[in-house]
Specification:
This protein has one helix at 7-24, and strands at 27-31, 34-41, 45-49, 58-64, 67-80, 83-93. With 115 residues, it is an alpha+beta fold. It has a domain at 25-93: Thrombin, subunit H (Beta Barrel). Strands 1-2-3-6-5-4 form a six-stranded antiparallel β-barrel.
Length: 115
């Protein structure tokens, strides 16, 4: 059905869908105190709208609302239509605590008491 629409109406529909997707996303990237909304996220990178997209490079933080999701090293950017696409070199999930250097055992005793 969309194939039979005139090109001008199809362009308006595409613009409206892009605008709606941009409004409902909560993902954002922060670098040097600046924040930018992520319009598309994949396993290999993310895309920002071309009108706000700076030439990012290096270490960035990704947030979902106020929750820190990951810290990433981005290395490449390319324009794809009306998006600027950035690729991950490293994407490390953020955690609240320090990493453990031992394995936690579910049924392990809390403490051992001597005689």
């Amino acid at each position: 059905m969309l194939e039979s629409l005139p090109q001008s109406i199809w362009n308006e529909l595409h613009a409206a869908q892009s605008k709606a997707a941009k409004k409902k996303t909560r993902l954002r990237v922060e670098v040097n105190g600046e924040s930018y909304k992520i319009e598309r996220m994949t396993s290999t990178g993310f895309a920002l709208g071309l009108e706000d997209a700076p030439k990012l490079r290096g270490l960035v933080d990704i947030y979902d609302g106020g929750h820190h999701v990951s810290q990433c090293l981005i290395v490449a950017a390319a324009e794809e239509g009306d998006h600027m696409v950035y690729e991950f070199k490293r994407n490390t999930a953020a955690s609240d605590g320090a990493p453990l250097d031992f394995e936690r055992i579910k049924d392990a005793p809390i403490a051992l008491l001597g005689r």
